[in-house]
Amino acid sequence: MARFWDELGQPSPRLPITKDAALFNQVANLGGRLIYLHTYGQRFVRPEDDGIVPQGAVRCTKAVSLDEYPEDSRYDQDTQTLRVGDGEFAPVAPEIWNYSVSSLQIVKSWLDYRKLKSDRKKSSRLDDIRPERWDFTQELLELLWLLEATLELQPEGEALLEEVCASNTFSQSELPIPTDAERQPPKTQSAAQVALLPE
User: Fold this and answer.
1) CB atoms within 10 A of CB 115
2) How buried is residue 23: exposed, middle or buried, by Cβ count under 10 Å (0-12/13-18/19+)?
3) Cis preceding-peptide flag for 47 (omega within 30 of 0)
4) What is the pTM of this model?
5) Residue-wise over 45-61: b if at least 16 C-beta within 10 A, else e?
6) Which tens digit of pLDDT belongs to each residue from 60-88?
7) Using H for helix, E for strand and C for coil, what is the string for 139-199?
8) Cα torsion at 85, 91, 93, 96 (round to 10°)?
9) Residue 129: half-sphere exposure toward Cβ, Cα within 13 Å
């Protein structure tokens, strides 16, 4: 991402596409792995996968109470400990705690949505509808493991990006222009339509 930092601030995606089929497949496989992680094992499942986020180094050293929403969370970088209500998780590397997408700090945002009194601005009255309880321990562990695995894949992704940029890539003029129909969003089926489909 650092390589194209300035370009990321401009509209319209710019994606270098290599003409090297083997390299293209390597990039596609890595992308599939990231999608697998970020959908919690629901998409791009390989035969050797079990449909769950692989366990990382982070462990729950003290479970979060299931009886009520936690009131706060704190991260101690020196001990690499994340405290959520009465629960504790470690070792949480600073890279995991600070991981952000478009300036949104993922773990902090996730926790803010789930604490007893959220500081987040409400978008509608629907924000007041919440589950009676969260399985904080398992769900937070899976998020931390997901980010841990994502960070482990970054060096491979950066190396592949360098290879792609150094390879023979397609120019814009070589790519087909999509038709108006192809530019339309995919049609989705309602729950009623899905229920009528033959098994």
Assistant:
1) 16
2) middle
3) no
4) 0.75
5) eeeeeeeebeebebebe
6) 998 887 666 677 889 999 999 999 888 89
7) HHHHHHHHHHHHHHHHHHHHHHHHHHHHCCECCHHHCCCCCCCCCCCCCCCCHHHHHCCCC
8) -50
9) 4
User: CA 129, CA 134: separation in Å to the nearest integer?
Assistant: 13
The string of pLDDT tens digits covering residues 105-115 is 999 988 887 76
Report how far apart the first and last C-alpha atoms of the chain are (Å, whole number).
44
Report whether pLDDT(199) > 60: no
Q: How far apart are CA 159 and CA 154, in angstroms?
A: 9
Q: How remote is the C-alpha of 94 from its chain's centroid?
A: 17
Q: Which two tokens stand for residue 54?
A: 């692989």
3-class SS string, 48-113: CCCCCCCCCCCEEEECCCCCCCCCCEEEECCCCEEEECCEEEECCCHHHHCCEECCEEHHHHHHHH
Q: Are 66 and 53 in contact (CB under 8 A)?
A: no
Half-sphere exposure of residue 108, counting CA atoms within 13 Å on the CB side? 14
Tokens encoding 195? 């229920």
